[in-house]
Amino acid sequence: MAGAPRHAVGWPYAAPPETPGGRPDDAGEPAEWTSRAQTVHGGTYDNRCGGVFTVRDGRIVSVVEYTDTRHVAATLFPRA
Which of 19, 38, 48, 75 sits between 20 and 30 A of 25, alpha carbons compared? Predict the structure, then answer.
């Protein structure tokens, strides 16, 4: 995505306006994305993430994100 911030690659900018299949409005919409960047330490941050977005009136009101915290710690905060 040209011009997109590195951390936003694959980010679901817009949520579906309706919840398909007759689910309750606050059931949440699942999404999956990959965040990629080069760290200040010269390492590669490449993390596949998932989340559940709660959407009301066409706006995201909450997000529960799932990510590999071990990869985050090892990549962004390496031991000296």
Answer: 48
* Residue 9, pLDDT score: 39
Give dist(CA 63, CA 54) in Å, integer: 6
Sign of the C-alpha dihedral computed for residues 12, 59, 65 and 18 taken in this order: negative
Task: State the CB neighbour count (10 A cutoff) for residue 44.
Answer: 10
Q: Strand order of the sheet with strand 29-38?
A: 29-38, 44-56, 59-66
d(CA 52, CA 50) in angstroms, rounded, equals 7
Whole-prediction pTM value?
Answer: 0.56
> What is the model's pLDDT at position 19?
43
CA 60 – CA 15 distance, rounded (Å): 7
Q: Quick one: pLDDT at residue 16?
A: 43
DSSP-derived 3-state class of residue 3: coil
